[in-house]
Amino acid sequence: LEDLKNALENSDIDALQKSIGAIEGQMDVVLDYRAQIGAKQNRMEAIHQQLDNTAANLSEFLAETLYADIAETLVQFKTQENVYNAALAVGAQIIQPSLVDFMR
């Protein structure tokens, strides 16, 4: 800026053009930094939102676990266990080889 001031005072066109070129170059550098900072800020905001969502989900899961109805949970577990055992039994009967299969 000092060079620009001196060039203006002395009406030195070449020095003015040189100073303006230097200022424009520095403005480009500043714009590049602003773009980089903006991109980083957007990523940080996205991560912050993701962490907020995760915290809310974890709080919900914790509440469901802490305040679960034990009797209802056991009934659901037993129902699922019975369905699983029935599926295993059906699978075992389907796969079970017969005497005819061995004779082939």
Write up what this structure looks like:
This protein has 104 residues and is mainly alpha-helical. The chain folds into 2 domains: 1-67; 69-104. It is 90% helix and 0% strand. The protein contains 4 helices and no strands. Helix 1 (2-10) runs antiparallel to helix 2 (13-66). It is elongated. 0% of the residues are buried. The model has no long low-confidence stretch (mean pLDDT 88).
Helix content range:
over 70%
Number of helices: 4
Q: Cα distance, first to last residue? A: 99 Å
What's the domain count? 2
Strand-pairing-aware structural class: mainly alpha
What is the topology?
Blueprint: H1 2-10, H2 13-66, H3 70-95, H4 99-103
Primary descriptors:
0% strand; 104 residues; 2 domains; elongated; mainly alpha; single chain
Summarize, please.
This protein is mainly α and 104 residues long.
